[in-house]
Design goal:
This protein has one helix at residues 131-159, and strands at residues 21-27, 32-33, 44-49, 59-63, 71-73, 79-83, 89-91, 95-97, 102-112, 115-125. It is an alpha+beta fold. The strands form three sheets. The chain has a five-stranded mixed beta sheet with strand order 2-10-9-4-6, with no helix packed on it. The protein has a three-stranded antiparallel beta sheet with strand order 1-3-7, with no helix packed on it.
């Protein structure tokens, strides 16, 4: 009679090996970018292990959509890879944003040894702003500047010496009388 040997292999991470990764967005998630320009909000992620401790030297890839909105990295590619620092942080490099307004997704994948994690950041390409609102802002800026100048002029006038004293009004007579107009500059 022959006995078959049964071998069981348990997949247990070796000591010091990371079993699970987690990705958390620190900055730039939900960013709104001007169309046809460089992204103004860099995407920064933190990669931690199952205990919440930062994972250094993890490879983090940032994937932009191939078609439609989004854009490309400065090297013209749609994927960029970064490595986490000692605090478990990785930053997406420069993105030249597409001209098509609307939302797009950046897929983020972190890998360290056998452990992996993935997440998605939703970004937006803003609408093209016409020149007309700029004129409105210029008009508002001129109005505010004019108000500030008037306030400064008023302050200067308050510090100048007062005009010659105004002679007293004659005693009131019964009935209606109109006195000499007076004006007070500064404190009476």
């Amino acid at each position: 009679m022959r006995l078959a040997a049964l071998a069981v292999t348990l997949l247990v991470p070796a000591s010091g090996q990371v079993a699970t990764l987690q990705i958390r967005f620190l900055a730039g998630d939900g960013g709104v970018h001007p169309p046809g320009r460089r992204a103004v909000h860099p995407l920064t992620v933190e990669v931690t292990d199952e205990a919440g401790k930062p994972v250094a030297a993890a490879a983090v890839s940032f994937h932009l959509p191939e078609d439609g909105g989004g854009g490309a990295f400065s090297n013209g590619m749609h994927t960029d890879i970064s490595t986490t620092d000692a605090q478990g942080r990785a930053v997406m490099r420069t993105v030249d944003v597409a001209r098509t307004p609307g939302p797009f997704q950046i897929r983020v994948v972190a890998v360290k040894e056998q452990a992996r994690a993935g997440s998605v950041s939703v970004q937006y390409v803003g609408e093209v702003v016409s020149a007309r609102p700029r004129r409105t802002w210029v008009a508002v800026a001129v109005a505010v500047g004019g108000a500030a100048a008037a306030g400064a002029l008023s302050a200067i006038r308050k510090t100048t010496p007062a005009a010659a004293p105004v002679p007293p009004s004659p005693p009131a007579t019964p009935g209606i009388s109109i006195g000499i107009p007076t004006s007070t500059v500064g404190k009476p």
